[in-house]
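Re: weekly structure request thread

Next one in the queue (95 aa):
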Amino acid sequence: MDEMTYCSFNGGEEYKNHFEPGIYVCSECGHELFSSKSKFEHSSPWPAFSETIHEDSVSKQPEAWGPIKVCCGKCGNGLGHEFLYDGPKEGLSRF
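Done, posted below.
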């Protein structure tokens, strides 16, 4: 399995259309975030995942405008947002 760094936000996301087996890790500290098993196609310009690989993979902070801000659970690196009920199946989120 490959290990892919996730969320460096520098001019486009190289893993949006990448569906090879592997683990997505924080680009800052290498903490495991998502498995390719939870990745799905979405119209967003960023990779989309339905769940984290570990319970402590990310930390979450509610934002006033709706989605939940998501950061690396180890170093606090900003990863984007969790959009509730926007996953590939009913009731799942999109990270």
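The longest strand covers residues 2-6. The mean pLDDT is 81.
Next request, please.
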